[in-house]
Amino acid sequence: MSFARIVNRRAIYFLGSVAAGATGAAGLASSDFNGSFFNGNNNNPKNNGSSWWKGLAGTSAAAAPALRVAEVEKGKTPEDFQQVYNAIAKKIIDDDEYDNYIGYGPVLVRLSWHSAGTFDKNDNSGGSYGGTYRFPKETNDPSNKGLQNAKAFLEPIYEQFPWISHGDLYTLGGVTALQEMQGPKVPWRPGRVDLPESATPENGRLPDAENGADYVRNFFKRFGFTDQEVVALIGAHALGKTHMANSGYEGPWGAATNTFSNEFFVNLLNEQWKKEKTEAGNSQYNSPSGFMMMPTDFALKEDNTYLKYVKKYAENQDVFFEDFKNAYKKLLENGIEFPEGTPTIVFKTLDEQEQ
Ligand code: HEM
């Protein structure tokens, strides 16, 4: 049973039993989805229509850059997106042998971040909206090495749900993986529209880990993130591992590689770190427990402002989860305007659905 609640004239759809229990609101009927936000997004990569730009006509060159306007896939309801969530979640379980039984969760979170991590707020280019990661220029960006595994993982999902836009699929993949790895519920909004290949950003927009705090702070200015949001986001490195063949780093940041937690911060503060060179010539901090940190990770301990948040998140996982949820949602939605009536969906985990 699903529920709808109207808050400030925006629709929030709680598909999770926990959230649903908290709403006590009206039942969700298909008639709720006849709103104007359904305007024919057919996921056509050749969609050259102008509707995905909120026009700049009549504005001066100094005006804020145009946002891209979300258009929910025609006729699709929150339940349809829950079906996509379920298919991804089940496949994560079925294909659990990937990466020595870490599974696909971490690499799916990384794909969602890299699909959004090309964003530039100065001209609203890049970002998750256009799903341009699917084009060779972006797939083959050296910074995206390893993500072809996540792309291949999602291909059969796309075949099963060919109506979904790639931007929605990549971001939903990350949200699904995060929730299934016991991370926070991330309210997610649909409506990204496939943009043509010409919208693919140039390579070089993703961060280089061989850098310190000044670089990290400056890099994330392009998104408009605060110091606190930057620290929270990088806490995602509790998940998965680095791979020599992909990045020239090797090893995990912690022990629980497929459970979302604040372990990254705890280890950053408490492990005995030794700076060493990897066989690829990169600098990497290693600990006797077999954990690692890249220079951009370690920078969070070296900068006093960042350190304040590292300590806060190491002490309190709930605070970390809340801040991560908000920053990650912002990351996935950068540069997009969601028209009034666009549903905000809180997905139910597989576990919740079994109860
Ligand atoms: C300064 C910012 C960042 C840098 C320099 C960075 C760099 C890297 C590198 C080099 C890897 C290893 C890739 C490999 O060898 O397979 C990695 C993995 C990963 N990153 Fe980041 N990252 C940053 C921020 C983020 C953010 C914001 C997120 C998510 C919100 C994220 C999520 C992940 C995840 C989940 C993995 C593990 C992937 C796997 O196990 O296959 N990273 N990152």
TrEMBL record:
Q: What GO MF annotations does this protein's record show?
A: cytochrome-c peroxidase activity; heme binding; metal ion binding
Q: Where in the cell is it found?
A: Mitochondrion intermembrane space; Mitochondrion matrix
Q: Which reaction does it catalyse?
A: 2 Fe(II)-[cytochrome c] + H2O2 + 2 H(+) = 2 Fe(III)-[cytochrome c] + 2 H2O
GO CC terms for this protein?
Answer: mitochondrial intermembrane space; mitochondrial matrix
Major location (coarse): mitochondrion
PROSITE patterns (UniProt xref): PEROXIDASE_1 (PS00435), PEROXIDASE_2 (PS00436), PEROXIDASE_4 (PS50873)
Which E.C. number(s) belong to this protein? Answer: 1.11.1.-
Q: Which domain of life is it from?
A: Eukaryota
Where the record annotates domain Plant heme peroxidase family profile, the positions are 147-355
UniProt-annotated stretches for the region Disordered: 186-208
Self-association state and partner proteins as the record states: Forms a one-to-one complex with cytochrome c.
Q: What does this protein do?
A: Destroys radicals which are normally produced within the cells and which are toxic to biological systems.
Q: Which family does it belong to?
A: Belongs to the peroxidase family. Cytochrome c peroxidase subfamily.
What name does the UniProt record give this protein?
Peroxidase
